[in-house]
Fold:
Amino acid sequence: MREVYSRRGRIYAGMLALLALGVLVLGAFVGLGQEALQSWHGAVSAFDGYLLRVARFTLLQAGLSTLLSVLPAILVARALARHPRFFGRGFILQLFAVPLALPGIVAALGILALYGRAGFLAPFLSSLSGERWQGIYGLSGILVAHVFFNLPLAARLLLAALETVPADQWKLSAQLGMGAGATFRLVEWPVLRAALPGVATLVFMVCAVSFTVVLTLGGGPRATTLEVAIYQALRFDFDPARAIALTLVQVALTALIVFVLFQLGATMTADASLPAAPRRSVFPRPAETSFNFGVLLLALVFVAGPMAATVIAGLGADLPRLAGERAVLDATATSLILAGLAAFLCLLLSIALVMARRSLEMSRGGRRARLLERLTDTGASMVLIVPPIVIGAGWFILLRHFGDVFAFAPLMVVAVNAAMALPFTMRAIRPAYDAASARHEKLCLALGIRGWSRFRLVDWPALRRPAATGLAFAMALSLGDLGVIALFGSDRVKTLPYLLFERMGSYRTADAAGLALFLGILCLGLMFIATYWGKRTPDGSAT
Amino acid sequence: MVPPHKGASVKLDEVRFAYPGGQAMRFDLLVPASEIVALMGPSGSGKSTLLNLIAGFERPGSGEVLIGKADVTRLPPFQRPVSMVFQENNLFSHLTVEQNVGLGRSPSLRLSQADRAAVNEAIVKTGLAGKEKRLPQALSGGERQRVALARVLVRQRPVLLLDEPFASLGPALRDEMLDLVAELHREQAMTILMATHDPHDAERLSNRLVFVENGTIAASGATSEFLAGKGPAAFARYLGERRLSR
Structure:
């Protein structure tokens, strides 16, 4: 018999957090459900050719994006693994972490500034093709943007897999004189093959629910995904029945992908940690070396290009005027406040869930985890099954019965963004909390350190640093998000991404570029702080 | 001066316990007040479990745990008149020596003047004077255990449980720590149960020895007799060549 003693409070806190998440997700489904019941006829008839086309395009672009991201990523990852030390390797790895932190709309703008009809490369591309460059929109634009985001991600994940190859195997392959081909077949491919399904499914997932990129780079009904179609059904056509049909398909699709992901045992929260450069005995031959450097150079140019374009185009904008503009200042203030609140809420929920999970784990002893514990663990990342747009759509439909939908914008943005950042902050906090708990649990029990005293004296000192990391990370995520705000935004409540999207829509390209630079710097700054805090370990010597 | 305190007897009455999927254990034990007992036995035999049952970290499936005259079977650890020192993790790494000791007086670290005085006295007595403001990472292994003992001093509980507390210290340091425990015992006369693998520890501190094997108490008797080879055969096998020659 094991007893709960002072753990009950922590478990209740976790249950409260789960309840809040449940209300957020179920509320959306209530909204969708009651509308579907009222106008089921419309919902059924919305399963038409258009929906089929949209669903097909969603899968097509996600599939192509995955192929184009993961296959080159294999080459990039093994090039990095084969050359553990060279000038600029650290820089490439750092650079590959940037797209993860960059808001979708900023990246989309950078890609337009480079490859668009009036982009920096337009003259070159025109002379290459012999006719006037039409710019990339539609499928090609979406693919370029998705590869920009996911190639670096996949490369980092695959490199992490390659780093698990024991040093002795590299030594052996060098001693036996294996060439590039034999090394790949005998040493690298076995670990890559194990990692590939997880990485590919993760990339597929990211691309299947991608909203901002498709909204800004996709064009018209020919290049629309389910997410964007939901948004258009609600914002432009106000056709709730169609929105419901689309949402159902979207949820079924993501649930399927997540199911596959879980089967593969992959994490849904891509790892942003930087693999260290190990001492490894690899002796590539000259031909392979030049090939590898060619691969790395191409990848570097491809990833750095849109970033450089963002900076150059942004600096070309009338920045002083923008900085003094009322609308910009208001949007900045709104963004910072909403993102701050979302991050804070996210942190509270994460701490509650992490504490409850650990408490439940301890009370069960060696027995199997029960439902509640699993809910506080992977359950939290299940919110990712339901994309923000779907939650937003459900509440949008529900809330219009209770007055002006757009008045709920701040509440919705804060709540949904907090839920979306949850899996990431939990990952930052959980190891620190669990380690501290393993060290101190008995001592706290023995000395009767409980409740608030325990949180203040024991838990918080261990959590402070990872909490700051999680907070900055959540804030960056929600600051750059153009999801729920696209649905709920109005003249009264505008965030920076929303304002940026507006300026783009009204062809004030220079303004948009300036804002993109500002937003990008803001988010990257926060991410930088997050990783900086995350890397510095607290004074945790074993006592 | 800390006034002298009385120890309390510890009694386990038909205590049964099993970890999920683990071996069934059964303990019957009476330790008279203020006695010092060494618990010896192979790894996994149940020494730590026995201590955890007395401390309240584990609850028996059936049977009773009595300390003094009180039935503490249902009490949470912090309500039992017991202090425990573990092999490691006795200190909070982000709190100073002073604060770690102070927790023995108030789990929320709200200390009165008298509490502070007691904390300072205990720090001096355990040989840690001048190190009040240090963090555990700036202490040696021996000093960390001294802090834990200082906290035992200010808690003034009638029972002290030691779970291989000096196993990671060198021989000279071990002796020093054992002497310190003996000194605490002279002052507070608490009942002490110490789990250890080292016959030398048992000899230096305890007068009675309890041999735990396969989840139960296999034998008990005077430490000197057991270590002189007059214990049961199983105990002699456990000791192997380490029997003390006196």
In short: Chain B has a mean pLDDT of 89. Strands of chain B lie at 10-17, 25-31, 36-40, 62-67, 70-71, 82-85, 159-163, 191-195, 208-213, 216-222. Helices of chain B lie at 47-55, 97-102, 113-125, 141-155, 171-188, 199-205, 223-230, 233-239.
